[in-house]
């Protein structure tokens, strides 16, 4: 199948959302579902991959601040993964980020083996680890109580999302069922 990388247009929004949800479904971001696409601030750095019928199969959005370009979203529809689409989206992003004045390209991601393998294969270096912790009453009724020191009267915590230090990983994994190591991947562009 032939794929083309082109700039995102507003007419792509529904297809963009429909690509992102199944791509994230088998990852640590499975419940990060969006109903509208967030807009980014770098013109020309929102790209999509389409098949020969202009059906959207991959997305990559990048914002730029000074000399740092950050990938906000990268996803390839599961039916089209491992065909080089992610690599092509990244290569085009690198050259456009360079043209936009960036010297570094980075991204933050959790602990999915496949995704980590992809970033490493693409030449990114890993740094800056911290934790994403979920405390959920329906996972284990004691979790929210362990996560907040003093709940506000009249408000009972049911689900919380928290950031924590990597050094506390072992202790927090003992207290909460869902803990992710989030890390930065970066490369020179
Ligand atoms: C990560 C993702 C964008 C990669 O896109 P892709 O189109 O499947 O990747 P590519 O086909 O371009 O991979 C290029 C190379 O990366 C490496 N690679 C890709 N997936 C890999 C894996 N699971 N294990 C090891 N290496 C892998 C390989 O070297 C591959 O080259 P090859 O196919 O010639 O062997 C895609 O798999 C995806 O959408 N994942 C789910 C969403 C996600 O996790 N997004 C990032 C959240 S921050």
Q: How would you briefly describe this protein structure?
A:
This protein has 189 residues and is α+β, with helices and mostly antiparallel strands. It is built from five helices and eight strands.
Layout of secondary structure:
Blueprint: E1 4-7, H1 13-25, E2 46-50, E3 56-65, E4 68-76, H2 85-99, E5 104-109, H3 113-121, E6 125-136, H4 143-147, E7 159-165, H5 169-175, E8 178-188
Parallel strand pairs: 4-5
Antiparallel strand pairs: 1-2, 2-3, 3-4, 5-8, 6-7, 6-8
Report on this structure.
- This protein has 5 helices and 8 strands, in the order E-H-E-E-E-H-E-H-E-H-E-H-E.
- The relative contact order is 0.15.
- With 189 residues, the chain is of the alpha+beta class.
- It has an 8-stranded mixed beta sheet.
- The protein folds into 2 domains: 120 residues, Gcn5-related N-acetyltransferase (GNAT) (Aminopeptidase); 52 residues, no CATH class.
- It is globular, with a radius of gyration of 19 Å.
- The model has no long low-confidence stretch (mean pLDDT 96).
- A hairpin with a 5-residue loop joins strand 2 and strand 3.
- Bound molecules: coenzyme A (COA).
